[in-house]
């Protein structure tokens, strides 16, 4: 079983990424360090991939805020190696009231705004949790960051979580770029690609990105 955090609580995550589910438990965040001891330090090597998805209050990496984070590590074959993290970040109510119409609708309907308002994880604490997780499992400056349109997440990390940004390799694996190439070179494969759920919650979006890359690996890269 893999485990991750949501609103300062530890929740269960099945070893199959496609089975990700977030269930609330009344367990304090402080237990994270205890549970993570079950995973050997630096289990991942430089060929491993750090997967991350952020939910934000908008697309301005300077003025908008990170409100939810999901992160896990896979090997080069996309097999999950470590426990995953998933948690909402606390911000003042005013931050959410200033979101644009799309974010206001999406993040309220998904329940994310409510989770953020109830969370006890501040932005500063969120950065430390994420950095501690990376330091525990991967060597510094060796593993690339992966996800869909991950350049945007990287911009937010650079501004809001610089220690996390600095710990990762400077290269990224952007699944959206692979999709655009597939659309141009093998458009017949696009219609069979895994359908995204478009839930705009970090954990589910992360799962969708990994499944999408598996599809391109098994179908696109073998035929181009």
Automatic annotation (TrEMBL):
**Which keywords belong to this entry?**
Exonuclease, Hydrolase, Nuclease
Gene Ontology cellular component annotations, sorted alphabetically? mitochondrion
Q: Has the keyword Nuclease been applied to this entry?
A: yes
Q: Which SMART domains match?
A: EXOIII
Could you state a single Gene Ontology molecular function term?
A: 3'-5'-RNA exonuclease activity
What sequence ranges are listed for the domain Exonuclease? 48-222
Which branch of life, at top level? Answer: Eukaryota
One Pfam family per UniProt: RNase_T
Q: Which family does it belong to?
A: Belongs to the oligoribonuclease family.
Q: What is this protein called?
A: Probable oligoribonuclease
Give the taxonomic lineage as stored in the record. Answer: Eukaryota, Metazoa, Ecdysozoa, Arthropoda, Hexapoda
């Amino acid at each position: 079983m893999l485990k991750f955090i949501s609103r300062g609580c530890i929740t269960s995550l099945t070893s199959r990424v496609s089975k990700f589910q977030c269930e609330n438990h009344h367990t304090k965040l402080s237990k994270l360090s205890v549970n993570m001891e079950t995973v050997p330090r630096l289990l991942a090597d430089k060929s491993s991939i750090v997967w991350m998805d952020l939910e934000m209050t908008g697309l301005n990496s300077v003025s908008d805020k990170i409100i939810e984070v999901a992160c896990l590590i896979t090997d080069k074959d996309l097999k999950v190696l470590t426990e995953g993290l998933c948690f909402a970040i606390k911000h003042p109510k005013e931050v959410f009231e200033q979101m644009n119409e799309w974010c206001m609708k999406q993040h309220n309907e998904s329940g994310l705004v409510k989770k953020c308002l109830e969370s006890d994880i501040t932005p500063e604490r969120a950065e430390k949790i994420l950095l501690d997780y990376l330091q525990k499992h991967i060597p510094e400056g060796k593993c690339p960051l992966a996800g869909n349109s991950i350049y945007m997440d990287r911009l937010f990390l650079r501004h809001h979580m610089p220690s996390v940004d600095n710990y990762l390799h400077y290269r990224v694996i952007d699944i959206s770029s692979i999709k655009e190439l597939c659309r141009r070179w093998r458009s017949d494969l696009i219609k069979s690609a895994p359908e995204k759920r478009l839930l705009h919650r970090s954990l589910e979006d992360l799962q969708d990105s990994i499944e999408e890359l598996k599809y391109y690996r098994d179908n696109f890269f073998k035929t181009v």
